[in-house]
Amino acid sequence: MAGLIGLEEILRRLDEYGAKISKLWAEIKELREDQKRLWEDQNRLWEEVKKLRRDFKEMLKEQRKLRASF
């Protein structure tokens, strides 16, 4: 009888741990999706920074041309 009680306890704990592991994997999946979105946002921001730098350089060129014409 004691062996059956021990086996039942082991099976119960395995079920509990299985549920906890499933929950952890779901959380990991969600974190990966969040990370992917953050990387996409970061890449979009870097592209905007690159565009602003190009625009700024172009503006400086235009200013130099205007100064040279005076």
Kindly provide the radius of gyration, computed on alpha-carbon positions and rounded to a whole number of angstroms: 30 Å
Tell me the β content: under 5%
Query: What is the number of strand segments?
Result: 0
Number of helices: 1
Q: Which residues form runs of ≥5 with pLDDT under 50?
A: none
Largest sheet: none
Helix content: over 70%
C-alpha termini separation: 103 Å
Alpha-beta content class:
mainly alpha
Average residue-wise pLDDT: 94
* Mass-distribution shape: rod-shaped
Order of helices and strands: H
Give a topology summary.
Blueprint: H1 2-69
Brief account:
Helices cover 97% and strands 0% of the residues. By secondary structure, it is mainly α.
Protein described:
The protein is mostly helical. The protein is 97% helix and 0% strand. It contains 1 helix and no strands. It has one helix spanning 2-69. The longest helix is centred in the middle third of the chain and has 68 residues, at 2-69. The chain starts with a helix and ends with a helix. The model has no long low-confidence stretch (mean pLDDT 94).
Supply the key terms.
70 residues, mainly alpha, single chain, rod-shaped
